[in-house]
């Protein structure tokens, strides 16, 4: 049974009106947004780590500048998204506390290691590629601040995807050893990228309600299919092989048939048992603890200034 407020709210959503921070919303809508936007913000911040790993080892000065800029963009995306979440009445401190305690998630993809320079190409191409596939529709999401953050983030994200593909082109058309590195990166990152879209629709807990509220615009499987259809020709252009022997064009459906990710592995990663979960969360907790003196100094300074003003 929906209350009169809930019915009126759903009608606004159905008319594609944006919901703004101070307006009435169902508690479930607020909670789902905090979960999704917060998780997305954490993903951007934790997502800096696998690429940060290669900044000191970028092969040229130009590549190093580009990678630095990309990783800084991710910090910016995290900050917009934390701001969007804060408009829902949760503090940034609380969100970080919930990340550090393991209560909130970040994207499974960032629990995989980046072993070679070719991984910087594959991350940009596949991980940012998957991120855009998910985020372009979210530009039309029903919550105003989230939708506006997405518009800005998508512009930068598509540049990131192109820079990743440019690295892949260089590697795939380089020496046999470089091409082998590119293929190896694709082999390792293909399925983790497909997992970014979430569990298959039959196991997705939140999709139905989130789609009714237009917090989500597509199902997980719809976006995963679009991603495969877009990416396979890009792999072919590189002369690389997607690591799925059963991948096959299906004329009737106008898309590829492909092997699903290993969902046991996915749920293990979500439970904290992926190859890098401990390292990633450990790095974030350490950064937070190492910054304590700075936060304390800023607070003391602000207090002193306020006291002087009132004196
Ligand atoms: N990883 O019922 P559903 C980036 C959880 S892009 C971890 O289907 P929902 C940019 C899910 O939370 C990556 N957990 O869930 C970048 C739920 O558990 P809960 C970030 C996952 O929310 C690129 C449970 O499984 N993008 O960072 C994952 O309706 C390169 C059941 O699943 C976004 O966050 C997963 N992959 O759909 C940065 C986009 N999938 O919370 C650096 C916004 C599912 O009940 C370098 N988010 N779970 O405990 C979304 O669109 C949605 O949240 C989905 C999941 C599609 C991810």
TrEMBL record:
Q: What is this protein called?
A: Ring-1,2-phenylacetyl-CoA epoxidase subunit PaaA
Q: Tell me the NCBIfam families matching this sequence.
A: PA_CoA_Oxy1
In the record, what lineage is assigned to the organism producing the protein?
A: Bacteria, Pseudomonadati, Pseudomonadota, Alphaproteobacteria, Rhodobacterales
Q: Which GO terms describe its cellular component?
A: cytosol
Q: Which GO terms describe its molecular function?
A: phenylacetyl-CoA 1,2-epoxidase activity
Q: Name one GO biological process term.
A: phenylacetate catabolic process
| Pfam families recorded | PaaA_PaaC
Q: What superkingdom heads the lineage?
A: Bacteria
InterPro entries for this protein = Aromatic_CoA_ox/epox, Ferritin-like, Ferritin-like_SF, PaaA, PaaA_PaaC
């Amino acid at each position: 049974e929906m209350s009169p407020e809930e019915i009126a709210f759903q009608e606004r959503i159905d008319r594609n009106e944006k919901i703004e921070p101070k307006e009435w919303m169902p508690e479930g809508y607020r909670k789902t947004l905090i979960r999704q936007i917060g998780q997305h913000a954490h993903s951007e911040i934790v997502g800096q780590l696998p690429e940060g790993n290669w900044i000191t080892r970028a092969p040229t000065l130009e590549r190093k500048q580009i990678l630095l800029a990309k990783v800084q963009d991710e910090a910016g995306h995290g900050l917009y998204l934390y701001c969007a979440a804060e408009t829902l009445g949760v503090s940034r401190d609380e969100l970080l506390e919930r990340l550090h305690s393991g209560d909130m998630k970040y994207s499974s993809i960032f629990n995989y290691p980046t072993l070679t320079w070719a991984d910087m190409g594959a991350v940009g191409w596949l991980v940012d590629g998957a991120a855009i596939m998910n985020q372009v529709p979210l530009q039309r999401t029903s919550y105003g601040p989230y939708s506006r953050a997405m518009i800005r983030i998508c512009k930068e994200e598509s540049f990131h995807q192109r820079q990743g593909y440019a690295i892949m082109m260089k590697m795939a058309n380089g020496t046999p050893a470089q091409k082998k590195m590119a293929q190896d990166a694709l082999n390792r990152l293909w399925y983790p990228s497909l997992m970014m879209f979430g569990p298959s629709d039959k196991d997705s807990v939140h999709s139905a309600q989130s789609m009714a509220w237009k917090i989500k615009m597509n199902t997980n499987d719809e976006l995963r299919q679009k991603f495969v259809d877009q990416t396979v020709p890009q792999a072919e252009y590189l002369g690389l092989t997607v690591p799925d022997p059963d991948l096959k064009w299906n004329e009737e459906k106008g898309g590829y048939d492909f092997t699903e990710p290993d969902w046991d592995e996915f749920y293990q990663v979500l439970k904290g048992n992926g190859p890098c979960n401990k390292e990633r969360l450990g790095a974030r907790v350490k950064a937070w603890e190492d910054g304590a003196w700075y936060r304390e100094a800023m607070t003391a300074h602000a207090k002193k200034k306020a006291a002087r003003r009132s004196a």
